[in-house]
Amino acid sequence: MLVVGTLVVGGLVWRFRRGLSVGIVVVVAAACQVPGVLHTPITSTDAYRYVWDGRVQLAGHSPYRYVPLDDALAKLRDPVLFPGLSPEQRSGVSGRSDDPSQSPVDDPRTRINRPGVPTIYPPVAEAYFAAVALFTPWSAGTLGLQIAAALIAIALTWLLAVQSPRWAALWGWSPIVVLEAGNAAHVDVLAALLITAAVITTARRPRLAAILLGAAGSVKLLPLLLLPAFRGRKPIVAVSTFIASYLPHLLAVGTLVLGFLPGYLNQEGFEDGSSRSAILALLLPPEARQLVAAALALVVAAVAFHRTRTDPIALTCCWLYGAALLIATPTYPWYGLPLIALAALARRPEWIAVPLAAYLAYASYGHDTRQGLIYLAAVVIVVTATTVRHRVVADSGLTGHPLPTNTGGRDETHRPRNLGRTRRAAP
After folding, report:
1. Is the pTM higher than 0.85?
2. How far is it, in rounded angstroms, from Cα 59 to Cα 79?
3. In the list 29, 92, 240, 321, which could disulfide-bond 157, CB 3.0-4.6 Å?
4. Reduced to 3 states, what is the DSSP secondary structure of residue 107?
5. Can you tell me where the transmembrane regions are (predicted)?
6. CA-CA-CA-CA torsion for 212, 342, 223, 59, nearest 10 degrees?
């Protein structure tokens, strides 16, 4: 259904490309978010952890210090988050453990996933959770976060629509965005907003762009992979912003600020060498997979750094983020939300094949070969579309950049020199 819905949205965007306005795109995007907000989260239980982290912070505690089941926080329990454990009951848990083997993903007493380990989310994400919790009654559960995520998705639609209403619809009307923002309330939608704002502002306000990128990295770590696309002093400012966001928590809890990150990396196979990389798993043994994945990542980063001299930053960020997902092949589809925004900004809809592949891989959990083939199909789609576009552009005599170089501007084409009449490049 997601594949069909995405294709339908793509068809509508193409059909009404000349009749869309900023207002129409934003209003329809807002309407699209309503069904998701009215239903409890479907794709994951992450939103319950967000609610808990926000509540813990408002109570004056650090989510990096305590695990949700810890009896020290028993007074913060409610029937929504802990249907099987009242504040008066003892869970038997005291202290924290980062050993994933000692912490099952689910516990029947709570809706919070991994309730035996501390949070994994970086400080800006935690600040966002606390801000939403401040305005959300306990009885509302995840509703406050769902509304906040929907509003962020709508705000990002407007930001993209100011650049191009036609391409903004690719984000705002996407069934993936509806499912992972208004419904599942995944914090990745906030990262998508910050990344997009960083790309758009990088030419006129480079320092602000760098701060926004650093903040995005402090929502989810993945945006830091875009550093090679930002030239000059911007990467330094971005990394400084990222580090600065951790300092208050570092002073409060010390090394506990890492939360469940080490355990998560172990679960995903990054510590023992058997990392995800489902595509590489089709050809390589676990001991070689991590090394090859790291080498590929370095090559991609080097190419991105070189291409920023000539290519629009939106385009570089799009394929860089997409390539990172294809190398790591995470089974969590919501990781692709920033990629959808970047695909809309760069006018490269083929990259949406990657988050779509993540859904199919998510449904094929435990079938490693099938997951690898699914992601490989996404690679074929991206490479084929890119090749066809380059051939069309070469035949037309135009450049292949849909945006002015090194900006997030609004122009759709470049006019070649000495060309008698204007022709549009392939979208």
Report:
1. yes
2. 18
3. 29
4. strand
5. 143-162, 183-203, 209-230, 242-265, 288-306, 313-335, 372-388
6. 70
